[in-house]
Amino acid sequence: LSDKGVTDVMLFPLYPQYAMASTLTILVKAEEIRKKKFPHMTFTDVPAFYNKPDYIKNLADSIQKHVVGFEYDHLLFSYHGIPERHIRKTDVTKSHCKIDGSCCTTPSPAHEFCYRHQCYETTRQVIKLLGLSEDQYSLTFQSRLAGDKWLEPYTDVEIDSMPAKGIKKLAVVTPAFVSDCLETLEEIAMRAKEDFEAKGGEEFLAIPCLNDDDQWCRTVSKWIRDWSE
Predict the structure, then answer these.
(1) pTM reported for the whole predicted model
(2) Do 109 and 15 belong to one domain?
(3) pLDDT tens digits for 115-167?
(4) Are residues 38 and 137 in the same domain?
(5) Which CATH number belongs to the domain containing residue 174 in this structure?
(6) 31 and 57: one domain?
(7) Same domain membership, residue 222 and residue 186
(8) One-character DSSP codes across the chain
(9) Count of structural domains within the chain
């Protein structure tokens, strides 16, 4: 890039919510490469966009579009899971993030880098646009690994328990990603669907990520222009 006259590069991690395992690893690796190969280059980081009005509207509109004709009993927001220790490590106050049910709703500088807070805030704002009541949706975390304690509630556990609670038609959206991947297509659209039906569920809808949705692409291009100025 430098031999082509490029001196300024914008880094745009396409993860709506900030997390050590996604956003931070991208930024750290990019900086490592910059120092080694492009020391005269300047990087500009695009911040997490979990609460930007354009993104929230795009996500709400996408959900509405994909549930047309599907009368779901419940809408599940399933986010990628991370170990609880990651939440505490990214707490700039070193004291706010207790993961106790109230810290994510209590204003704090820690929220700028708190993945859990940002997941709940994305959900809260989307639900407000969709006009859903508290009993019509829930939030869970998927893709946990053994060893550490991961964010709860767990997606697979919750989905397995839903048919017995009378939830027979389930729609699932995965807002931790803007593009579908193995964790949305295989883990949710395939395995979660099979588990839900095996437990007595009747209909399961995996709502696609934003992917190449025209409205979303226009939003991204607008942000790039705005942040470039």
Answers:
(1) 0.94
(2) no
(3) 999 999 999 999 999 999 999 999 999 988 877 899 999 999 999 999 999 99
(4) no
(5) 3.40.50.1400
(6) no
(7) no
(8) -GGGT--EEEE----SS--IIIIIHHHHHHHHHHHHH-TT-EEEEPPP-TT-HHHHHHHHHHHHHHTTT---SEEEEEEEP-BHHHHHHT-TTSSS---SSSGGGS--GGGGG-HHHHHHHHHHHHHHHHT--GGGEEEEEE---SSSPBPSSBHHHHHHHTGGGT--EEEEE-TT-SS--HHHHTIIIIIIHHHHHHTT--EEEE----TT-HHHHHHHHHHHHHHH-
(9) 2
